[in-house]
Amino acid sequence: MTVLQLVPSLESGGVERGTQEVANELVRRGHKSLVISGGGRMVSGLTKGGSEHITWPIGRKSPATFLLVPRLRRLIRERGVEIVHARSRMPAWIAWWAIQGTPAHFVTTVHGLYSVNAYSAIMTRGERVIVVSETVRQYILKNYRACDPARIRLVFNGIDPRAFPYGYRPAQFPIPVPQGKRILTLPGRITRLKGHEDFLQLLRGLPETVGLVVGGEDSRHIWYARQLRRRAPPNVIFTGHRDDMRDILAGSTIVFSLSRRPESFGRTTLEALSLGVPVIGYDHGGVGELLTKLLSEGRVPVGDLEGLSYRTRQFLAAKPFVPAQHPFQLEQTLRQTLAVYEELLRVSGDRG
């Protein structure tokens, strides 16, 4: 196969990691892997894995981005691309128009619970629509009735247990913290809906702990990030973006997921649980789905600050049991994703 994936950038994040993981697996199996993005720190790892990266501003939300359509159509024809896999809305629109008149198949992955409108509907137009959780599948069925359920394929985001081995602990915690303090960690870029204010409120009542806010500032929310820092209690540390998340998660006492808007999956939640670290999260979306399956006592009603404090104190007093095995394995994710590609090629071959 020759597979082209499209993603806005390769800077950081779960979508970007998923793109790289599929690209590496394609190469490992002897297929041709191409990725178009606006670039980023993950490009070098992608190309080292044997994929070809093409730097285009494919994710720029501007009418000018549609000028890439004929360019992409030529590339699809010249490279013999058989599968075009779009993982974000603007790249999906470009891909949708570019594949017209070519034999390439169109695949989308719905990574988020997008706003319901015509712009987002492009993510449900794939010949196969991959969804990363049951939460996403139900969201599409409820809000996009034009999407035939027969085109939807549920492929849970999985992680490599070798990258996040159960029981792993770093020899030295990568961030200087006061000795003897238990560490409460909230991962995620600083935006208004990620629950940072709830986390700070929790830490005000737990001065015997240290709280880590791990994530870079979203360029659209710099003022908000500054306000958070000003209001933060003295036991909170803002780390900024980190490339050593495994060691931070593994060295934490509890990891939190407190987004006020439901997440589509909750990759960091799964990474922490895979390491054996308990997670407390708001009980909705993909995070609630994961916790229901793997650590049901970690669920807290959305916005229930009293319940959040109570559950945190419970976990600090007695660490809950986190199961060593879970079904969300990267190997299965990759196998099922490539099976979607192969299914489309098989169907078109049968028709031919």
What does this structure look like?
- The structure is a single chain.
- By secondary structure, the chain is of the alpha/beta class.
- It has two domains: 2-158 and 330-351, 3-Layer(aba) Sandwich (Rossmann fold), CATH 3.40.50; 182-317, Rossmann fold (3-Layer(aba) Sandwich).
- Helix content is 39%, strand content 17%.
- The chain has helices at residues 14-28, 43-48, 68-79, 89-98, 118-121, 134-143, 196-204, 222-231, 245-250, 267-275, 285-294, 305-317, 330-351, and strands at 2-6, 32-37, 52-55, 83-86, 105-110, 128-131, 152-154, 182-187, 209-214, 236-240, 254-257, 279-282, 299-300.
- The strands form two sheets. Strands 3-2-1-4-5-6-7 form a seven-stranded parallel beta sheet, with helices on both faces. Strands 10-9-8-11-12-13 form a six-stranded parallel beta sheet, with helices on both faces.
- The mean pLDDT is 95.
List keywords for this structure.
352 residues; Rossmann fold; alpha/beta; 39% helix; six-stranded parallel beta sheet
If you consult CATH, what is the topology of the largest domain? Answer: Rossmann fold
Strand order of the largest sheet: 3-2-1-4-5-6-7
Residue stretches low in confidence (pLDDT < 50, at least 5 long) are none
- What is the element string, with H for helices and E for strands? EHEHEHEHEHEHEEHEHEHEHEHEHH
Shape: elongated
The strand count comes to: 13
Percent of residues in β-strands: 15-25%
Largest sheet: 7 strands, parallel
What's the CATH C level of the largest domain?
Alpha Beta
Number of helices: 13
Category from helices, strands and their pairing: alpha/beta
